[in-house]
């Protein structure tokens, strides 16, 4: 008896991706306002959606999935408001999601009336489980639905010739779909759209549910990358979720395996365990010297808009942005950081132990780096005292005074702040 089954793993004897690194940012598409929003206990109001949209534009996103206009009046109205109030910058393309159903596609084009450019993102579910248990249709019927959806999108677009349209197709539940079949569905859609190098289509591969290790997902992406028809006329996109906790790694490996574009959300909001976190992946690129082509320096604003719009907290250990990620509690870490910072010249590359990036790049300060509690050693105590008073203690005094601080932190079981350390130092030594 096997309760859980393995999913399709392609055989790629001459695979090349594990040896690569990412050398340039992928095309980013934020789905905060759609996938992120649909997963909230209280979906965003229109003012919250506007606040998030403005943030995404300011961060530099050029493609933003703003919603599912045929799904509700709020979604429809938000789309209309963006267009009628001319809030979409000329270099930003909005994207909207729709199922492969004609009335929904018709309503979607109505919502987009008058927009200068837009991506219409059509999808249907292709996995074996969905085919057999949800739709009760065979492979041919599901492929036919995808083809028909592509035709509807193309035909409705022709009724609005003043808009520059782009088309995107997702085989939803791709990770549960037999790989060669998924490729045949995507190719059937592309045959309808007949994309060209000047008018590219987007094929988006969703890990709707993350079902494998990221390397297996990347192998699947590589197989699609190699087998897709019209490959030069296609932007290959991935859309990973985080069910196994590896949504970011899956997108990173997918880019190494041939994907051109990544869909995700800020800080990983989204269905269940979330979408992949674009903020973290972008900062991963930044910290290895690759321009992420997003302006993420104002983390205070990102956190403030994120929490206001989603009503979700930011975890204190969230990579790069969490309140605790530039702190060192252990004495040996504090000592190493202090030594690296002391020898560092401003023009040197950033190589500081325990600090993968310079906190100042995200508006954080060095003052927050050294914190003292009962786990800290003499180095951290001496560092904070020097920062606060300018005193540089000889080693013997560092050892003696650290014991005073440690006693207090053990007694109170709390972090000890620089002000307490300064006062205690004066109390202990100023009379002597
Ligand atoms: O996760 C998913 O499959 C989606 C699709 C609709 C792209 O969000
Ligand atoms: Zn999704």
TrEMBL record:
It is found in: Cytoplasm. Keywords: Acyltransferase, Amino-acid biosynthesis, Branched-chain amino acid biosynthesis, Cytoplasm, Leucine biosynthesis, Magnesium, Metal-binding, Transferase. Mg(2+) binds at residues 35, 239, 241, 275. The keyword Ligase does not apply. Residues 26-300 form the Pyruvate carboxyltransferase domain. The keyword Cytoplasm applies. Its main location: cytoplasm. GO terms for molecular function: 2-isopropylmalate synthase activity. Transmembrane segments: none annotated. Its cofactor is Mg(2+). It catalyses: 3-methyl-2-oxobutanoate + acetyl-CoA + H2O = (2S)-2-isopropylmalate + CoA + H(+). Pathway: Amino-acid biosynthesis; L-leucine biosynthesis; L-leucine from 3-methyl-2-oxobutanoate: step 1/4. It is an enzyme of class 2 (transferase). Homodimer. Belongs to the alpha-IPM synthase/homocitrate synthase family. LeuA type 2 subfamily. Catalyzes the condensation of the acetyl group of acetyl-CoA with 3-methyl-2-oxobutanoate (2-ketoisovalerate) to form 3-carboxy-3-hydroxy-4-methylpentanoate (2-isopropylmalate). This is 2-isopropylmalate synthase. The lineage of its organism: Bacteria, Pseudomonadati, Pseudomonadota, Gammaproteobacteria, Oceanospirillales. The gene is leuA.
């Amino acid at each position: 008896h096997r309760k859980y089954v393995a999913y399709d793993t392609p055989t790629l004897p001459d695979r090349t991706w594990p040896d690569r690194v990412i050398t340039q940012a992928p095309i980013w598409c934020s789905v905060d306002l759609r996938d992120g929003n649909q997963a909230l206990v209280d979906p965003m109001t229109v003012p919250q959606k506007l606040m998030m949209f403005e943030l995404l534009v300011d961060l530099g996103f050029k493609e933003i999935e703003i919603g599912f206009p045929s799904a509700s009046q709020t979604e429809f109205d938000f789309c209309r408001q963006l267009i009628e109030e001319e809030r979409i910058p000329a270099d930003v393309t909005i994207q909207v999601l729709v199922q492969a159903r004609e009335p929904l596609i018709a309503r979607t084009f109505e919502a987009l009336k008058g927009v200068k450019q837009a991506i219409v993102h059509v999808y249907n579910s292709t996995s074996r489980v969905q085919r057999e248990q949800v739709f009760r249709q065979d492979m041919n019927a599901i492929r036919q639905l995808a083809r028909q959806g592509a035709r509807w999108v193309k035909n409705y677009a022709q009724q609005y010739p003043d808009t520059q349209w782009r088309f995107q197709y997702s085989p939803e539940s791709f990770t549960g779909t037999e790989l060669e079949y998924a490729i045949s569905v995507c190719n059937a859609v592309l045959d309808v759209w007949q994309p060209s190098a000047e008018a590219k289509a987007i094929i988006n591969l969703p890990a709707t549910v993350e079902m494998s290790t990221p390397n297996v997902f990347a192998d699947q992406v590589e197989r699609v990358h190699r087998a897709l028809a019209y490959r030069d006329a296609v932007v290959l996109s991935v859309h990973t979720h985080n069910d196994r906790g590896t949504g970011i790694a899956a997108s990173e490996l997918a880019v190494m395996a041939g994907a051109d574009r990544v869909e995700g959300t800020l800080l990983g909001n989204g269905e269940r365990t979330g979408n992949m976190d674009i903020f973290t992946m972008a900062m991963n690129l930044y910290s290895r010297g690759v321009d992420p082509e997003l302006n993420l320096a104002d983390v205070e604003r990102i956190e403030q808009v994120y929490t206001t719009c989603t009503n979700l907290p930011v975890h204190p250990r969230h990579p790069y942005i969490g309140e605790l990620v530039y702190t060192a509690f252990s004495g040996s870490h504090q000592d190493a950081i202090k030594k690296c910072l002391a020898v560092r010249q401003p023009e040197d590359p950033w190589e500081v132990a325990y600090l993968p990036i310079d906190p100042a790049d995200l508006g954080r300060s060095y003052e927050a780096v050294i914190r003292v509690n009962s786990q800290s050693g003499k180095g951290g105590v001496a560092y904070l005292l020097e920062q606060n008073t300018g005193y540089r203690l000889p080693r013997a005094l560092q050892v003696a005074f650290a014991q005073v601080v440690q006693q207090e932190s053990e007694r109170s079981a709390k972090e000890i702040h620089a002000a307490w350390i300064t006062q205690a130092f004066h109390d202990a030594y100023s009379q002597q």
